[in-house]
Structure formats: structure tokens, C-alpha cells
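Batch manifest line 362
LIGAND: magnesium ion
JOB: complex structure
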Amino acid sequence: MSRVTYHDAARVFTGNSPVRAVDNLRLTVDDGEFLVLVGPSGSGKSTALRMLAGLEEIDEGSVHIGDTDVTSMPPKSRDIAMVFQSYALYPHMTVAENMGFALKLRRIPKQDVRQRVAEAAELLDLTEYLDRKPRALSGGQRQRVAMGRAIVREPSVFLMDEPLSNLDAKLRVETRANIAALQRRLGTTTIYVTHDQTEAMTMGHRVAVLADGVLQQCDTPRELYERPANAFVAGFIGSPAMNLETVPLTAEGARLDEVTLPIPRGAMDSLGGGSEVTVGIRPESLRLVSDEQPDSLALHVELVEELGADCLIHGRTAVDGKRLIVRADGRRPPALGDTVHVVVRDPEEIHLFDAGSGNRTA
Ligand code: ADP
Ligand code: MG
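JOB STATUS: finished
ARTIFACT:
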């Protein structure tokens, strides 16, 4: 069993002002799972991974791989393999030598090394390049050699820290599909770090969102999208970002400009009579309507991004000047300077967060 568990694990960097880079992380990655750790730059993703790899101290709590407490075990005894952003291939070695190097150091018989390298090369489509030096490879091929180097070690856990950031956009999309497929075939427990929420959402069985060293939510991509636990996750997951506004709360609902957004009874009760609420509406939850529609919100169009099938309308509300983004049909984009009218498609699609704590209500 290679389940990975962080038990309230913390890493504190001391300096002029101490930083809790990873703050009481409590997280379990199941055996065979592909878990993505996502968050903005500086949120503690690399530190969390390095703590598991043994490259960073664990100042509080503990980390387990399977039933073994690895908290104070040296890196080489932890049975993990890590793929970094910089592949750091040895330039003077061939692809085969690069891939087999760690096995050679472990004095694994030559014949076995050759076989494991051949198998990994086959999986990664690298067979015809085994005799080449890294400089004669494309960026994507080098990335696959770095993966191969990890695979041949047959570790119980793979750790990957932004392994695609050196590839161009098109190759990144292709490679992320290949890595996900490869992980399914190998069935090896994997923790994958990225700052890119699209990458996280398309690759992970579950996605753990970090901010300032604190785990915000760990869930399936769908659940993160549909029920973000707080305003941070709501704004971070999804592109373009969810519209988030803190507005006055009345007995009838949330006041946005001159419109009252209806709030379900249950949600109203759990708001506990505060005077403000943070309302979240995804761009696709807004719908263009005619200007005669009652209770529609008037928006001045400031920017239109035409994406082909869709267009993104960036507008400002007429009264309070709040910025909203609307995803609309790409075939009839409004012009700059127009006024358009929008309504929320379905009150159920309105997300509500406590104006103070940012936590989801109901
Ligand atoms: P991420 O990978 O999410 O971008 P990191 O884990 O690299 O974030 O860093 C998390 C926080 O810890 C940041 O505030 C960073 O400045 C700090 N940090 C990371 N490494 C060190 C270090 N060796 N010494 C002091 N602070 C560090
Ligand atoms: Mg990092």
C-alpha cells in the first residue's frame, strides 16, 4: 500500500519574520491516486512536495508513506521518484544512460537495467532515441526522458513539480493527457504540483487547493467547481474567474445595483442576518436578455473577447460600477460602449459566501 498521509505537517522558515510555508497540512492521497496540488506562486506547493521527498524538514506533525512514518527518514530510503521543472539531464550521457543511471548506482544488474529502460522507453515513445544525447532532443522528448528516469525506478510514489512549464502551450496540453494516461496504466500514487488551475482540473482525480500554506479544499474537479468551500477557491478555480462581489443583504435577497438577487430560504437562514454577503456568479450563469426584461441588470460593455464559439463580455454595472464578466454566444457579440442587460440563469447557480470569513454558507 502506498497511501500518502500528511498529519498536520508544517514547515516554518525562520528569518526576520517566520513564514509557515506549509501550515498544518492534513491530507491523504489514496493508493494509486493522481492528486494535483494547485495554488498561486508562493502558496507552499513545492515545500509540501519536498517535505514528502525528504528534501525539506518537517517542523511539526508527520508524513507517512503506506504504514511507514518517513518523517525523519533520509530521502533515498523513502521509495519515491521526483520529476522537477528543470529536467537536469546529464549532457554527456545518452538517453538510455540517463534513464538507467539511478539503477546503476543501486548496483542493479546490467541486464535488468537494460530491460527496465527498454520498457520505459516503449511506454514513452522514446525507443528510437535511446542512443541520442539530450542536446539532440526536442523539449518534449527531454521531458519524457525525465519521466522515464523516474519510471525505471519503480517507486511507490511519483512526485512531479511543474514538470510541463518548460513546454510550449500546445505541447503542454498533449503532454498532460499523456502523463494522465501513463499514470492510469502504471497505477502509481502520484502527487503533481502546478500553479495552472486548468492543468489541475483536467489531470487530477482530486485537486487540493493551497493558499498561503493552508489547504483550502481537496475534492474532485467537479465538486471544486460546483461547490467551492470559500471565496478563494471560487475565484481561483475556473477561467475566466467567477464574478465575486460583496453586496448589501436585505430581507428579499442580495442587492446588486438596483436588482435584488433572490436567495434560497435555507441560505438566507444560514447567513444569520448579517448586513452584507459575498455573491459569486460564474460568467456562464449570466444570460443576455432584452432591455425590457424586468429585474435585469444593465451593463456597460468595456471589452469583448471573441473566442469563436463563445464571447466574453466585460462590463460594468450601470449604478455601482461593479465589474462583471458574461459568457455569451460568440455569433452575436455586442459592441464596445453598448449597454446590455443580463439576468442570472437560475438562482441555484448563485454562490454565497460569508462577507467576513469568505466561507461558503449552505
Ligand atoms: P510554491 O511552490 O507554491 O510557489 P514554495 O513552496 O516554493 O511555493 O514557497 C512557499 C513559501 O515559502 C514562500 O513564501 C517562499 O518564499 C517560502 N520559502 C520557500 N523556500 C524557502 C527557504 N528555503 N527559505 C525561506 N523561505 C522559503
Ligand atoms: Mg514551486
